[in-house]
TrEMBL record:
Its cofactor is Fe cation. GO terms for molecular function: 2 iron, 2 sulfur cluster binding; dioxygenase activity; iron ion binding. It comes from Allosphingosinicella ginsenosidimutans. The keyword 4Fe-4S does not apply. SUPFAM superfamilies: Bet v1-like, ISP domain. The lineage of its organism: Bacteria, Pseudomonadati, Pseudomonadota, Alphaproteobacteria, Sphingomonadales. This is Aromatic ring-hydroxylating dioxygenase subunit alpha. Residues 43-151 form the Rieske domain. InterPro entries: Rieske_2Fe-2S, Rieske_2Fe-2S_sf, Ring_hydroxy_dOase_asu_C_dom, Rng_hydr_dOase-A.
Length: 378
């Protein structure tokens, strides 16, 4: 068995030893409560500073029916706002990215500066006692952590910096602030509940069973641990050459001094970082409906034109493309099983620390999660 951090089994509450009930992966009423109590108050990743380097550069994030606009001000600061005109509620911008010196509503031409101030509107004399200072864009909380920009719809709970504080020593050598995108954000729709993606990401026991490539690379070194706000997973690359040509080439081309450990961090509840010796990815599990999730994913890397580093990055992509296909099949099977009326929560072993931690958090936030069936009335 992999070297997995252990969490003692609960002696006082047997439900702590069980996985979540199947109905929480498809029930529409539960999904609404979950979005309100879990996702809205949680940090959601948008992009990296380097994705919007110039004044006026903007990115959007679609989340729970909200469109959030993150824009670089003329002063260089990134700010987040609701992508909604204060006049009649029209969307200000369309698409995922762009650049604008000012934001002008396409409906009635109300115009906003990049810092959110209302700076112009037609027929101003029509509005008696109008104070433009009161009608700027609606702000959304934003945090910049090591170059990455996060937003949340409701305040409360720790900052991203506080959540990741226990791992700063490991993070620092990867120089996140200096990363640059290797491409654009990929949107991967999955017909599963978002928890299914999150569960799978932090599950250590399936590695040996379902990911032969990772097993060839890591051997028995894969380890997981559950922190207060972050799950940490890691695997150390073996010195023994893999029997797979892509994996063997990756082992060979990875430059000396780049490190030999793959690190994974999942921030509660639905943002993850994959930290490799050659690049860094983020994965964002965006809930769309009770049985649909959009995975936002993009890779970043430090500037490095060495041929062997370019080869390593390409091979990493080949390896993880296969891992992604394996995981996609797994979570689809689980989603199908959760829809069965015959399924009952299964036991969680001592080694399944991340799944136990995740389930415990949800049961604390939404006590109805303890029930065997959806409640009649919410």
């Amino acid at each position: 068995m992999s070297d997995i951090a252990h969490l003692p089994l609960s002696q006082s509450d047997p439900i702590e030893d069980l996985s979540l009930p199947g109905w929480t992966y498809w029930d529409a009423d539960y999904f609404k409560v979950e979005m309100e109590r879990v996702i809205r108050p949680s940090w959601q990743i948008v992009c990296h500073d380097s994705d919007m380097p110039n004044p006026g550069d903007w990115r959007t994030l679609e989340l729970l029916g909200e469109s959030i606009l993150v824009i670089r001000g003329q002063d260089g600061a990134a700010r987040a706002f609701a992508n909604v005109c204060r006049h009649r509620g029209s969307r200000l911008v369309d698409g995922h990215e762009g650049c604008a010196k000012r934001l002008t509503c396409p409906y009635h031409a109300w115009t906003y500066a990049t810092d959110g101030r209302l700076v112009a509107l037609p027929h101003r004399e029509d509005y008696r006692g109008f104070d433009a200072a009161e009608w700027g864009l609606i702000p959304v909380e934003l945090e910049r952590w090591r170059g990455f920009l996060f937003v949340r719809l409701e305040s409360g709970g720790p900052s991203v910096a506080a959540m990741m504080a226990p791992y700063e020593t490991e993070i620092a050598p990867h120089r996140f602030e200096e990363l640059r995108a290797l491409g654009r954000i990929t949107m991967r729709p999955r017909d599963v509940n978002w928890k299914n993606v999150a569960d799978n990401y932090s599950d250590g026991l399936h590695i040996d069973v379902a990911h032969p490539g990772l097993t060839r690379l890591f051997g028995k070194s894969y380890a997981i641990e559950a922190g207060a706000h972050v799950d940490r997973m890691s695997g150390a690359l073996r010195e023994q050459p893999s029997s797979n040509i892509s994996e063997r080439a990756y082992q060979q081309f990875l430059p000396a001094g780049a490190g030999r450990t793959w690190l994974y961090f999942k921030l509660w509840p639905n943002v993850a970082f994959d930290i490799y010796p050659d690049q860094v990815d983020f994965m964002h599990f965006v809930p769309v409906s009770p049985t649909r999730t959009m995975i936002r994913e993009i890779s970043y890397a430090l500037p490095d034109d060495r041929r062997e580093m370019k080869a390593a990055r390409y091979l990493n992509w080949r390896i993880n493309r296969q891992v992604n296909a394996e995981d996609t099949a797994l979570i689809r099977r689980v989603q199908q099983g959760m829809g069965s009326s015959l399924y009952r929560p299964g036991p969680l072993g001592e080694s399944e620390v991340c799944l136990r931690s995740f389930a415990r958090k949800l049961r604390r936030i939404i006590p109805e999660t303890r029930l065997d069936a959806p409640p009649a009335n919410w």
